[in-house]
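User: Predict the structure for this protein chain, please.
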Amino acid sequence: MRIVVNEKYVARRAFIGRYASLAGLGVLLAAFIFSFTQTDSPLLMQGWLMGALLVGVLLSFVGGYYAERFSGPVAHHVGVRNALKGLDNRYTLLQYVLPVPHVLLGPDGLTVFVVRSQPGEISYKDGKWHHRQRAKFLRQLAGQEGLGLPEADVGRQVARMTRYLEKRLPDVDVPVQGVVLFINPDTRLNVEDPPVPVFYGKKVKSWLRGPGARKALPAEVRRRLGEALVGGREQGAGSKKRGGG
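Assistant: Here is the predicted structure, written as structure tokens:
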């Protein structure tokens, strides 16, 4: 499998993830120390402390959000690659170079991945998602993304990618499908009749090769699709190859 990724995009957000949280903690610590060294103007002090608290919490939240997505142990771009590792060179994974973050170009069309990295118990039953996790509220305050409605995100990303293709290849009908992919090793997944395909980690590969496989695109369509999505992007993005398996 070939991988084309916007390395600069990932690196910038990983940097924010690493240092925004530290900056937030620094602001909170400074405010704490300052509160014990100043006794004049209590009203002014209270306003200053509230402002510092707000800034510190905001920086910590932003840092945690970006760290989880781009630099932490469950960074989304790494999790998707690991889940798809072993696909042969007919496949190209494009990350952060298109209108949606993670797109797999295969011999039968496109697959969009909506990534979730929450740990804990994830379930879907009777039309509702549930997420159970220890200290969930505190983790979300620290920047952990909420589960939300993954199927709605799939619908939006598929529609966005379809519109993108219609502008660049208006005379070509390219099938686009979407899946929800959970990548955290501490996730326990239990779904019943989900509205969209839902997988944990590498289990998505069996689906891509089996129930999720579609009729192969004609060679000319595949060539034009590759040129529209990949051609010229490798100069501004990193490109890697991983062997099949």
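The first strand starts at residue 2 and ends at 5.
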